[in-house]
């Protein structure tokens, strides 16, 4: 396969990476920074306990539901344009959220943030996919991106703590504005998309409607289950609707001429393995973020700022795993030998955290547990992010990137709801078993809460082990750069999968 003008390295690609990474950091920060500010915002705006979940849910529904559409828009409009529009829209929505005077304005701004995030996130990842074509450079670029994607959430906890404690909750929204403006200006002047990488096929409207409604129903079903229980009629109805809509979406995509999500993106064995194992790992991780935040603040009495700093070992582990282990080994070993063991190391870190008790030592249990979890996740995320868009026809890069974000968003929604429900059930059972002999009701409540966290973390350990097994079993591609007649992107895959993508797309 000869090199064309579209595959020559972009001279400004490393500068572009800085702005893409800044935008990714902003989106990931926003996912956790608002959690810390939520109690203060709730009080100021008079949001009821029943409605407070919508500050999180409105964002998650818009983001998760519109991601595939956002990825396709990036392929159609051009990734640079979509990226800049997404950034400016996200900044405007953040300004609206920071200036909110009531719950309706807050919920609306969060939904707008989610919608523009759904444009921004797949455009950012697909820009990396089409700009970094050399195997070693790609490893470095995705190492940096993976470290930010994994560690940014914990940075959000620190920043959210500082802003809420020393300024005001409104600054957790306003802080996005400089991030977005700098990243948008940088992208406008620095990013140059490879020629011929757009997909100008007409938009698949039935696919957009079915996928958006199906994903919204799925995310809302899990969010609803957390608050109302799994047997609630609306929860069950949402899951049934999601199943029907997503099945109809798959049938539609197999029949239309220009599908929103070409099924070959999903059915290719390696890519499918990445989406599945990454989604499962995120389920485990999102649940843990929630439990550790509550454990440190409620049980240990940490301030928001101290809680944020307590997550630093996980960030350090992720950055080390991504940039020093994943990026260095990615061009030397097959991805499954990084992802499988990476998820297992993370599971060992989780296993340590199942020992949580009221008097647990931070230094003896939580710190090493977080380090192992961060190292394992960082090592696994890096090849996963790269492989998800590896060898894909450039015109499909946006929608393949959107699927990475979709598996993360849906995984996050499932993780928060599923593990929270397990924890709540175990907490109730603990109180029922120990109420008779309890002398201090407050102490019993704390012991029950920690027991609930430990039970849910055991499930997270199991989920990570399954993610590891899926990565090792399904992902069978060789190391990037192997072989002699590899494609111009440096993948060197010898399994012929590359052509399976190239020929049908060009034929459209």
From TrEMBL:
PROSITE patterns, per database record: MFS, SUGAR_TRANSPORT_1
Transmembrane parts of this sequence: 16-38, 53-70, 82-100, 112-132, 144-163, 169-191, 203-222, 234-252, 273-296, 308-325, 337-356, 362-389, 410-432, 452-475
Keyword Transport: yes
Record's keyword terms, sorted: Antibiotic resistance, Cell membrane, Membrane, Transmembrane, Transmembrane helix, Transport
Predominant subcellular localization, coarse grouping: membrane
Alphabetized InterPro entries for the sequence: EmrB-like (IPR004638), MFS (IPR011701), MFS_dom (IPR020846), MFS_trans_sf (IPR036259), Sugar_transporter_CS (IPR005829)
Membrane topology, as annotated: Multi-pass membrane protein
Keyword GTP-binding listed: no
NCBIfam families: efflux_EmrB (TIGR00711)
Protein name as catalogued: MFS transporter
Species name: Streptomyces argenteolus
